[in-house]
Each structure stands twice: as C-alpha cells, then as structure tokens.
Amino acid sequence: MTTRPDLEALDRADPLAPFRERFALPRGQLYFVGNSLGAMPKASAERMRRVVDQEWSQDLVRSWNRHGWVDLPQRLGDKIGRLIGAAPGETVACDSTSVNLFKALAMAVKLRPGRRVIVSDADNFPTDLYMAQGLSGWLGDGVELRTVALDRLDSALGEDVAVVSLSHVNYRTGELFDMAAITRKVHDCGALMLWDLAHSAGALPIELAACGADFAVGCGYKYFNGGPGAPAWIHVAERLHAQVRSPLTGWFGHERPFAFEGHYAPAAGIASLLVGTPPILSMSALEASVDLMLEAPMAQIREKSLRLSAAFIELVEQHCAGHGLQLVTPREPGRRGSQVCLRHAQAWPVMQALIARGVIGDVRAPDILRFGFTPLYLRYTDVWDAVSALAEVLRSGEWQREEFQLRAKVT
Amino acid sequence: MTTRPDLEALDRADPLAPFRERFALPRGQLYFVGNSLGAMPKASAERMRRVVDQEWSQDLVRSWNRHGWVDLPQRLGDKIGRLIGAAPGETVACDSTSVNLFKALAMAVKLRPGRRVIVSDADNFPTDLYMAQGLSGWLGDGVELRTVALDRLDSALGEDVAVVSLSHVNYRTGELFDMAAITRKVHDCGALMLWDLAHSAGALPIELAACGADFAVGCGYKYFNGGPGAPAWIHVAERLHAQVRSPLTGWFGHERPFAFEGHYAPAAGIASLLVGTPPILSMSALEASVDLMLEAPMAQIREKSLRLSAAFIELVEQHCAGHGLQLVTPREPGRRGSQVCLRHAQAWPVMQALIARGVIGDVRAPDILRFGFTPLYLRYTDVWDAVSALAEVLRSGEWQREEFQLRAKVT
After folding, report:
1. Across the interface, do B247 and A102 touch by the CB < 8 Å criterion?
2. Those residues with Cβ within 8 angstroms of residue B337's Cβ, 6 or more apart along the chain or in another chain
3. Which among B78, B131, B240, B395 has the fewest CB atoms less than 10 Å away?
4. Which residue from A227, A257, A277 is facing B281, i.e. has the nearest CB?
C-alpha cells in the first residue's frame, strides 16, 4: 500500500522538482488538465511583457528584422522538432492543428493519385475526422474517409488507401499507440502516415524520423504550455519536400515574400507550409514555453509521468473502490499516454464537486473523467491529495448537490 | 502656403486629439506605418496582462466559460462587423487573412458551379493572388485565376466568372476603389464579390451590406491596431449562409463542438467558418483595440485622415520639389485610402535615412515610399515634421551614405 510519506520521498528525490518553480500555478488548486491547457511558465509571461511593451510598442514594424519575428515560425518549428525526433527544417509553427491537418491530408492525397481513401480511427479526435470529411465532401472527386476501430486497422488497409491519419494518444482514453509498428504497416500497404501528436508531444519521447512518419501535426497549448489557442505546427519528412504541394499558398510560404511578386513560387522546404502573417504575440509565448521544455530531459519527463499515473491508478483502486469508477486507460505503461481516464455514470457532477474541492480535472462526454499528468509542475503528493479529494466526493455523495448538475458551454 | 502654425491650429481643434493618449507610441519617433502594423493601444497591453496573469495563469481551462473565451471569435467578429457596415452574425474573427481568402474563394467557386474563373486585380496584394493560384492549381479541375488591370475590369467579366476578388485599397499605391459600383458590375455579370479590406477597414467608413458584397476578409494588425500578426476575420453576407460550405471544417465550426461527435455538422451561420481552437492571447489583444476603435466616429477618422494626407501631399510638393519624387496616390480625396505613396528611384536608402531621423515609413519594392495616416494617434504637426525631415534627407543627400544602402530581410 502506497502511503503519503512514500510519495513525499519520491518528491524529495525527483530530479524534475525544480521545474515547478518555473510555473505560475493557480493558487490553492491542484491542476490535472495540462493535457488540455498547460499551466503558464513564468518565462512566458515575461516574454509577453517584452513583446508587448518593447517589441510591439516601441520597435513596431522594425521588430520583423530586429527581434527576429520573420524567422520565428521556422526557429520555433526547429525547437519543436527537437521534442518530437525530427531533423531541423522539417517542422514549422503555424496556423491551428485543424488547418494543418487539412494541409497534410490534401498533400498526402495528391501524392497518391490512384488512391482515394483516407483511413482514420473511428474514435480519433473529432477535428481530425471533420477535416477529412470536409476535404472529401468538398473535393467531391471520390476522396473518402474510412473510419475503423484502431484494433482492426488491418481490415481498413488496402491498395485504395492514400493516407492513414491517427492520433498518437487517444484524447478520451489516454491509450498510446505504437508509432513505429503502425507506420510500418501503413507503409507496407503503400499509404502515407500522418500522426496527430496533440496528446503526446511534450509528454513522452517521440522519434518521428526513426519511425519513418511522413506527416505530423500538433498543438502548442497542451503539454507544450504555449497558452490558450497557442499556434500549432506541422511536420513533413524531408524526403517529401520536393514533391509536396500545399493547397494553402500564402505569402509567408513564398520564396521571396518581401519581393511582392505576382506569381506564387513556394519557398524551399518546410517554409512553404506557412500561409499568412504569423501571430507574433501567441507564437512568442509558445517559444518561451518550448524553450523551457527543452531544458528538461524527455526521458525523465516520461519516467515521472508514468510513475504519477501509476500511483494515481493504484490509489484510486485503493481508496475509491465500490463507487462505480471504471479504469479506461490501459494499465500497461507502454500503452499509456500522460493521462488517466475513469468512467463514471455521473462523470459531470462528480468532476464539478471535485473542482469545488480545488482539484481540477475535466470531463469528456458522456461519462469520462480525465486527469492529465504534467511532470514539470505536478508533485507525487498532488496525486495523493487529488485521490483523497475524489474519494471524499464519492464517499460523501456531495456530487449529488444541485449546484454540481449544471452543465457549462465548454465541458 | 500651409505653415506649421496652421497645423498647430488644426491639432488644437481636432476632436480626435484625445485618442493619442490612449496609445503607447514609440518614444522620439513619428510613426507612419500604421497601415502595416498599428501602434499599441495601452488598453491592449493591460488586456494582455489580465489574460496572461489571471485568465491563463489562474483560471486556466475554466476561462473558456468564465471569461468568455469560447465566444470570443463571434463576439469580436460582431464588433468588427460594426466597423465595416455588416449586420451582427455576418463576421467572425479567425485564422489569417490568407486562410480566410481560401475559404471565401473556395465557397464562391462552389456557389457558381458552371463558372470556373476567379478574376483579380493584377496589382492586388500578393497573397490574394497566391491563394487563388494555389486553389486553382491544386483543384486542377479548370478553375483558373484571371488577372487584369483594374481600370480594365469590364474586359475580364463574363459568364465564366465565378467570383471577383479585389482589395478595397491598393497596398502599393493607396488608391481606393468604388466598392458599390464595382460590386454592382460584378453582380450584373452573375459573379460573386469578395473584398479584401486589409488596407481600408478601420481607416474609412465601409458599408458592406449597403454595397451588397458577398464575402469580405481583412486583417487585425493594420488600422485595427491588434498587434503583430493579429487574427484576421471573414465576413459572409447573411443571405448566403444557408448555401455556403467551407472546405475547412474544423471542430470550432461544428454545431456542438463540445459534444465531441464523430460526424461534422456545421454550426448555423458565420460560426461554421471557424476552424481550430482560437488563439486567445492574440485575439484578446485585438478585442481591446477594436473596442477602442468603436469609440471613435468613423466619419471623423476619415475626415482627419484625408486632411492629414492632403497636407502631406501639399507639403511634399512645396518642400521636396526637384528631388525626383513622384506622387503615386490619387490626388482626389474620393480615390485615396489612408496612405500616400511616393515613387523615388532610391526609395530604399531615402527611407533608411528618414528613419535615422526618427520618421518611420516603409518601402515597397522596387521604388515606392509609403506613408500611412492613422488619425487616432497622428497629429497634423507630425505631418509637418515628417515632410521637413524628408526635405532635409533629400536636400543634404545623406541617403547616399553607405549605411543606408544595406537591405533588410523584411522591407
């Protein structure tokens, strides 16, 4: 039986413990939603002040040169690349994950002209499915989305498949998939592989290049701690650069944007995936937080993440048994991302009652309680305190209070 | 002959003069590039501090409900709509101007199935041309871009034209076009009209609804003062809402994004044009600056803008004659946006020498000096002082110094 002193000992020995100081955490609360919106690095707030009060206010347009605004998407892209096992020049920060999914799917479909099928996990994050549906419905030339339960992926693969689009970690269950094995299987059928790393990048070691992935996208606001709606990023394997052609040919993707020429000529390499003027305020906040991520060894992040989630699972089973909770996330460490999901018939009011006790998790409809584990700012003892609060909410039945039944617009 | 005391008198009588206090302007400089990147409203800096230090840092995910993050794109879109003569529910803040051009062009082409031509001004802003080229090249089903000198627009119109895409003010010459007359002409040939208002919105009264425009896009970082790379916006006339279908079908454009359903169902109205998670930091800064714009009567902004630019033209002709400057911008007030462009064979070094004297303008290749007029933070006397400095740069020949020849990455 794990005790609170056991966890205190783990905190004392934790090599990542000093990182907690680098975040401005919500006072009096334990925050388990870093998998949805990461906590704020103090350096991001400082960076925002500098960008606003000096770069924008004082240096204005000259900041494009003087403060490197014009290179920010590529500079930041390369930093993100180091966190996902990509080579320099393969990743660029831009747009939203959804828009980047569109680019990647569109490019992939063009690269496999005889094949018209996009395969995806039926339980993929909705926007991944929606962007593929939009593309196929709008193209209307036979491109179609085929969804399948991921454990039956083989049944969906065939010579008609242009691209397989999957999330590395399922947003609802926290299950982690085998990137190398799936990519190999997809390539064996002649299709291209697109990974959505929104729920894994920054949380665990990723080796995109070693796995041979073709495309990847991800967001900046979850484990990268880039701030609400932070810019996303897109990765294209270097071997495809000469062949791909994005449908979104904006001026920042031009070879010479400031020559203001009348004809589009794509920039060499990943820069051709840029579209409009980059959002400097949001992107600067993300750069500051990615710089912080780069200071922490990813292997240590993963090790602590798995220990945190394992402790959570163990403690929930010890202290919350008999209250209708069901573990959704795989128990095997190798199949677990950095979140733990529990099913409960009254997930919504249970979570509201837990939040009222200062433990912040979230809910995914209809019945999933989600807890994200972010090793840079969570302590082992936080896990103990969170499970204690959850046990108390369930034991007392306080979640049945009327105030906890009211649904919010964003769940 | 206009004298400096004449301009001092105009400043004293200026009803917009109090707005200057509301901006944090660059110290010791006169800033004439608000048509490229607007100066920083003090309220934007305050808003950023609140969003960062309270909403992100302390309230985190709960801010989606508590601080109205989830409604920000529509709330801000409606505010922008008031500045461009649109009805509520017709405008939404999202993505970049380039991405919004793609959506509008793609929707327009779908609405006119028998017609395959996109018409644009050969001298339109490059990204407007590039996005159309990308769309047509990528679709490969006969959709093509036809460019024409705008004074010969009639020659390009015909029964094969699906949509005409034009900028309201030319970015290089400052010429303002007649929105009502052109829209009528385009509709007469059965095509749809897309206006890019990047260089006019916030600078002069616009009546999109009264002109019958179908689509419009624009950016947030020029006359709206929303900050570098601020989010853009898109407008679709309400009468088209039931028919249009964006190819970019992301989760924020879904009818019930937080139900996490597997099939895309577009939100009613303009919200279906949203794609990914909105960039809250950048969008909050833009909302603060748009709120400021809404306090100033647009007719007063236009009146002062024209007086500023008229004074600039007059003073340049008085004080800079014989130095090779040529006025590019139309002299007639009704054909002038809120910038004045001068051609000079040595535009680049002349501008660098002027900047060294603390007067900030910019250059557009190959030979255009640009000066933007932003009535909320420029004084009439600033125009006098800028022209005096320009005259001195030209008279002294100091622009010939070696230090002013070096080109920067961003011009």
Report:
1. yes
2. B35, B168, B169, B170, B174, B175, B176, B199, B200, B203, B204, B329
3. B395
4. A227
C-alpha–C-alpha distance, residues A357 and A352, integer Å: 9
Contact B91, B270 (CB under 8 A): yes
| Residue-wise pLDDT tens digits, A336-383 | 999 999 999 999 999 999 999 999 999 998 899 999 999 999 999 999
**E strand spans, A149-281:** 161-167, 192-196, 215-218, 233-236
CB burial of A323-339 (b: ≥16 within 10 Å; e: otherwise) equals bebeebbbeeeeebbbb
Chain B residues inside the 8 Å CB shell of A281: 48, 227-230, 281-282, 285
Q: Do B409 and A135 touch (CB under 8 A)?
A: no
CB contact under 8 A, B247 and A26: no
- The catalytic position among B78, B95, B196, B362 is B196
**DSSP code, position A240:** G
- Residue A23 among the catalytic residues: no
Strand partners, B254: B266
Q: Where are the alpha helices (DSSP H) in A143-223?
A: 153-156, 179-188, 208-211
One digit per residue, pLDDT tens: chain B, 411 residues? 899 999 999 999 999 999 999 999 999 999 999 999 999 999 999 999 999 999 999 999 999 999 999 999 999 999 999 999 999 999 999 999 999 999 999 999 999 999 999 999 999 999 999 999 999 988 877 899 999 999 999 999 999 999 999 999 999 999 999 999 999 999 999 999 999 999 999 999 999 999 999 999 999 999 999 999 999 999 999 999 999 999 999 999 999 999 999 999 999 999 999 999 999 999 999 999 999 999 999 999 999 999 999 999 999 999 999 999 999 999 999 999 999 999 999 999 999 999 999 999 999 988 999 999 999 999 999 999 999 999 999 999 999 999 999 888 887
Q: Is the C-alpha dihedral spanning A60, A65, A66, A71 positive or negative?
A: positive
> How far is Cα A263 from Cα A389, in angstroms, rounded to an integer?
62
The predicted structure's pLDDT at residue B28? 95
Q: What's the gap in Å between the CA of B1 and the closest CA on chain A?
A: 33
What are the distances in angstroms from CA B324 to CA B98, B329, B345, B393?
36, 16, 7, 13
Mean pLDDT computed over every residue of chain A: 97
Q: What is the pLDDT of residues A162-174, one digit of tens each?
A: 999 999 999 999 9
* Residue A32 contacts residue A357 (beta carbons within 8 Å): no
Catalytic residue among A31, A171, A215, A221: A221
**Residue A221 annotated to the active site:** yes
Using CB atoms, pick whichever of B52, B122, B409 lies closest to residue A65.
Answer: B409
Q: How many CB atoms lie within 10 A of CB B148?
A: 17
Find, in chain B, the residue whose alpha carbon is nearest to that of A106: B138
Residues ≥6 apart with Cβ < 8 Å to A234: A91, A92, A94, A95, A100, A103, A104, A215, A216, A217, A270, A273
C-alpha B92/C-alpha B71 separation (Å) is: 10
Domains with residue ranges and CATH for chain B: 4-16+298-404 (3.90.1150.10), 47-295 (3.40.640.10)
Q: Which amino acid is at B263?
A: H
Residues in B closer than 8 angstroms to A121, CB to CB, are none
Give me the residue label for tokens 């169902």.
Answer: B265
Distances A146 to A119, A165, B152 between C-alpha atoms, Å: 5, 10, 48
A370 included as an active-site residue? yes
Helix pair B126-139, B97-111: axis angle to 10 deg: 50
Q: Of these residues, B32, B221, B371, B377, which one is catalytic? A: B221
Residues facing A217 on adjacent strands:
A196, A234
Partner-chain contact A228 B281, CB within 8 Å: yes
Cross-chain Cβ contact A127/B250 below 8 Å: yes
Measure the N-to-C terminal CA separation of chain A; round to a whole number of Å: 34
Positive or negative: CA dihedral B404, B405, B409, B410: positive
